[in-house]
Amino acid sequence: MATINAPTMDRRTMPDRRVAVRSHQRSAMSAMDYIAMALLIIGGLNWGMVGLFNVDMVATLFGPGSALTRVVYVLVGIAALYSVYTTAKMASSKRT
Predict the structure, then answer these.
(1) Is residue 94 helix, strand or coil?
(2) Quick one: which of 68, 76, 74 has its CA closest to 38?
(3) Is this model's pTM higher than 0.90 or not?
(4) How far is 40 from 71, CA to CA, in rounded Å?
(5) I need a surface site. Which of 6, 21, 50, 53 has the fewest CB within 10 A?
(6) pLDDT digits (tens, 9 = 90+) for 41-76
(7) Which is it for the CA torsion 61, 65, 68, 69, positive or negative?
C-alpha cells in the first residue's frame, strides 16, 4: 500500500498569502476620488433631468441663480477636471 509523505509545515499555521498581500496594498480610490465621483453622479443626474424633463434639481432645491446653486455647479466642474487629471495619471502609469 502506498503512503503519502506528510507536509513538513502545517498549512493551518501559515498565513494565507492572499490576505498578506492585500493587507499591504493601498485602497484603489482615495477620499478625494469618492467625493469627485459623488459630485459627478449628482451633476450627471441633474443634467439627465434637465435633458429629459426640463427640470434643474439643483436650482429647484437651492433657488435659481442663488449663490449655493452656483457653488454646486462649480464643485461639479472641479470634480470633472479632477477626474480628467486622475484619468490622465492612470493612463500614463499604465504605459510605464
Answers:
(1) helix
(2) 76
(3) no
(4) 14
(5) 6
(6) 999 999 999 999 999 999 999 999 999 999 999 999
(7) positive
- Spatial separation of the C-alpha atoms in residues 83 and 76, rounded to whole Å: 10
For 13-30, the pLDDT digits (tens) are 655 555 555 555 666 889
Residue with cell 499591504: 24
C-alpha to C-alpha distance for 75 and 81, rounded to whole angstroms: 10
For residue 57, give every residue at least 6 positions away whose Cβ sits within 8 Å of its Cβ, in sequence order, or none.
45, 46, 49
List the alpha helices (DSSP H) in the chain: 17-23, 31-53, 57-62, 67-95
Neighbours of 37 (CB within 10 A): 15
Assigned C-alpha cell, 13: 499555521
Residue given cell 485602497 in the structure block: 27
